Amino acid sequence: MRYETFRAAAQAGAIEAERTRTARARLQPAIDAALAAVLAEQRPDGHWVYELEADATIPAEYVLMVHYLGETPDAALERKIARYLRRRQGGHGGWPLFHGGAFDTSASVKAYFALKLTGDAPDAPHMARAREAIRAHGGAERSNVFTRMLLALFGEMPWTAVPVMPVEIALLPRWSPFHMSKVSYWTRTVLTPLLVLGALRPRARNPRALGVGELFVAPPASLGLAPRAPHQHRLWFALFRTLEAQLRLLAPRLPARLRRRAIEHAAAFVRARLNGEHGLGAIFPAMVNAVQMLDVLGHPPDAPEAAAARRAIDRLLVDHGDEAYCQPCVSPVWDTALMCHALLETGVPAAIDAARRGLDWLLPLQIVDRPGDWATRRPGVRPGGWAFQYENACYPDVDDTAVVAMAMHRASHLEPQPVPDRYSDAVARAREWIVGMQSRGGGWGAFEADNTHHYLNHIPFADHGALLDPPTADVSARCLSMLAQLEPGACMRRRAPAARALGWLLRRQEANGSWHGRWGVNYVYGTWCALCALAAAGLPPDAPPVARAARWLAFVQNPDGGWGEGGESYRLDYKGHAWAPSTASQTAWALLGLMAAGAVDTPAVARGIAWLVDRQRPDGLWDEPQHTATGFPRVFYLRYHGYARYFPLWALARYRNLRAGGSGRVAFGM
């Protein structure tokens, strides 16, 4: 028996060794195929932009918006969106928040309502399954706050079931416990037009006069407020619920002139940030709320501001011929910057030339002449960041800025001497802005500094738990990577921004050796970001934080050699790694993290490389239907269609380079 066990183990080892040798032999062809595919996708002006897909709620809300406004629907477009929504329906009968995920009430209510508006009969099999699933999970009354407000606008739920957020809060002074500067940019842009809608309480035009009363278990008129969300502390919530009850009594007694002034103030805030055909905040929920706010304030659809705001939403549509959906936003700066890193890693002249064209496209998009909302907390800091989208001047992104600056700095080292560095001024300005955006503790948020009024996540309105933009490990690691790449040894100076960032990051390491990933799913993403930063900061592979993180990555490797992690890893009672099928992007993150930790010549890395090579399609790319990115943990997930392109290419090229170079050391911050 022992002999048979030993023999089986030996055979398995031999098979794995042969697989590794075969993968190494196929490595360069795999890199060449992936490179050819992504070079063909570069836009004529030099940039890349890929689809950004969320869950069913965004295309459903697009349909609901059209019927809310009473527009004549584009019948062909609605049929395509309906096909998309039907395909996304889960085996449980409802709609999940991410690929293969569990039933979600709010997503299911919106998808069902949208399908009904497009003409799907309530007694159709897929509609009956959805209705049964929704009612089995407690009915539409279990929806979240944003869905409750949408249902109230359509007259399907009483306003008494929606948390009170009086528009007068727009007039509160900055020192008050609640002020718009105390919440995140996405909350600010989504909530401000909602305040106007909540004050005026318009009714959706809804020309077909359709509703979803059949989704409620209890009579909608009898509904009270939603219960406390799992993340909300019992005492804080009780306090805010008491305050809300008082506000509900006080609101009707407030002077009408005060309400008019508050509405004017909120509307002025929105109109100053409409952002033309790129939309308020350049994110779908804020853009829809802005269009509906302009509508209730009497702006005709053909008025310049209203028309541009409405066109901004249509720019988010993706039409594949038989199906269509709406994106939550677009990601050209992010896609282009990350692609440039992957191309520079390949070292191929054609790839380097393409990367320079991409960086040249990015160069004029740096925001240097307009302080955004971030300047409220950092008034003395000069602008110098990049936004995530084509245009979003009020809301540059710290993470994007660090990634762009590192790519430009790296490309500058490839310039033939003595040609002047075309990116040095932009990189210096980006560094200045990022240093200015560092929070007091040493970390960074994505768009704001010191956005840490955590008590606000306990107000009844904040049942999604994402009202704020506090420092996170992944964004902070990226900023540390940038500082250390631009100035080797920067962490050696006590109290320098890089040294403070390093200390902050090390304090955030989990007990198992990983780091939480706020913007990517999840600990694999956060650990990759952190290991890159620690390597750039000069920590050796045998430093305890580095070694522990590398061991954790090897431990959570899937039996097939890849890595995968599910959206369930964000649950509040998380106890360990949330297993999921291997994906190309998460496998690439783990490989890049291990290589940054010096673990190039290890079985874990060899097996991961073999997984990528084995799963590559004939066209050089990889399949990845999963949502491997995060908008809001537990609430909103993203599928970047570019992630399964540039990250695997990057990992394969780096593996080849490190094995050929012999040093095993990653020379850049990412």
Keywords:
670 residues, mainly alpha, three-stranded antiparallel beta sheet, 4% strand
SSE succession: HHEHHHHHHHHHHEEHHHHHHHHEEHHEEH
| Shape designation | globular
Query: In order across it, which strands form the biggest sheet?
Result: 1-7-6
Fraction of residues in β-strands: under 5%
Helix/sheet category: mainly alpha
Tally the beta strands.
7
User: C-alpha Rg, in Å?
Assistant: 25 Å
Detail the poorly predicted runs. none
Averaged pLDDT, please? 94
**Number of H/I helices:** 23
Describe the largest sheet.
3 strands, antiparallel
Oligomerization state of this entry?
A: single chain
Helix content: 40-55%
Distance between the termini: 49 Å
Describe what you observe in this structure.
The protein is mostly helical. Helices cover 49% and strands 4% of the residues. It contains 23 helices and 7 strands. It has helices at 2-25, 27-40, 57-69, 75-88, 105-118, 125-136, 145-153, 185-200, 234-250, 256-272, 284-296, 304-314, 332-346, 349-362, 398-412, 424-436, 473-486, 497-507, 523-536, 544-555, 584-596, 603-615, 643-661, and strands at 52-53, 317-319, 324-326, 563-565, 579-583, 629-632, 636-640. Strands 1-7-6 form a 3-stranded antiparallel β-sheet, with no helix packed on it. It has a two-stranded antiparallel sheet with strand order 2-3. 54% of the residues are buried. The mean pLDDT is 94.
